[in-house]
Amino acid sequence: MGEQRLDKIIASTGRFSRREVKALVRQGLVLVDGMPARSADEKADPERAEIAVNGEPIVYRRYTWLMLHKPAGVLSATEDGRGTTVLDLLPEELRRQGLFPVGRLDKDTEGLLLLTNEGGLAHDLLSPRHHVDKEYYVRTAGRLTPEDQAAFRAGMVLGDGLRCMPAELRILRAEETESEAAVTLREGKFHQVKRMLAARGKPVQYLKRVRMGNLTLDPQLQRGQFRFLTAQEVSALRGDR
Ligand code: URA
């Protein structure tokens, strides 16, 4: 991996900005192998050096993985002249890391969105060959029925000829004018949940992704908030592919 500037290494954890690292170095609170760093642009090998800030060791990771609770109204893109993107929800230090969303949620869809700069694993998780489950909570117009469930299970063919893999529709509440369900897909085609339910005459009113593979949306995260994945969660993703 080689040597990198201390401020870059420490800021990559997302806990401190580069400016804060400078101030901490000046106060003698950044130690490299037990010795106070002299300057924030001093270099170290993040995979070998023991770096501590304020007495706490820095856990350096080569790649960044974040779980974001995407709010409605935000685009799953890295840049867009016309609107707010998920990257706009991150602090400056993280925006510089080349992160991108792992797949897309529609602008009006909320919930679990992963962001990373680890292209290979992200690509594998999205690849249709790997069939990583994606689970959604959905509210529809109309009453969901066992026939809808059976159609999902059989694998639907949509009006434009799109052939969907078998999917699960678990009905949570079914009333005359509105229903709630958990939908699990093993693929992620454009507007897929909305199109499948529209084809059953039960248009989606609200959609939220709650799970991807082994990862469930963290209930502590409010809309627009994110957290780093733990090392165990990243390993579990490697197992999902
Ligand atoms: N299916 C949809 O229709 N929209 C999403 O954002 C995700 C799945």
CATH homologous superfamily designation of the largest domain: Pseudouridine synthase I, catalytic domain, N-terminal subdomain
Q: How would you sum up the major sheet?
A: 9 strands, mixed
Which ions and ligands are bound to the chains? uracil
Instruction: Tell the overall outline.
Output: elongated
Order of helices and strands: EHHEEEEEEHEEHEHEEHEEEH
Count all strands and give the number: 15
Number of continuous helical runs = 7
Pick out the low-confidence regions. none
End-to-end distance = 25 Å
CATH architecture annotation of the largest domain? 2-Layer Sandwich
User: What proportion of the residues form beta strands (DSSP E)?
Assistant: 25-35%
Radius of gyration: 22 Å
CATH topology (fold) name of the largest domain? Alpha-Beta Plaits
Helix proportion: 10-25%
Mean pLDDT: 93
Which class best fits the helix and strand makeup?
Answer: alpha+beta
Question: What is the count of distinct domains?
Answer: 3
Give an account of the 3D structure.
The chain folds into 3 domains: 4-57, Structural Genomics Hypothetical 15.5 Kd Protein In mrcA-pckA Intergenic Region, Chain A, CATH 3.10.290; 65-128 and 218-239, Alpha-Beta Plaits (2-Layer Sandwich); 134-212, Alpha-Beta Plaits. Helix content is 22%, strand content 27%. It has helices at residues 6-11, 18-26, 92-95, 119-126, 146-154, 192-199, 231-240, and strands spanning 4-5, 30-32, 35-36, 43-44, 51-53, 56-57, 65-70, 100-101, 110-116, 134-141, 168-174, 178-185, 204-212, 215-216, 226-228. The longest helix is centred in the last third of the chain and has 10 residues, at 231-240. Bound molecules: uracil. Residues 105-106, 109, 191-194, 207 line the site of uracil. The site of uracil has 8 residues, from helix 6.
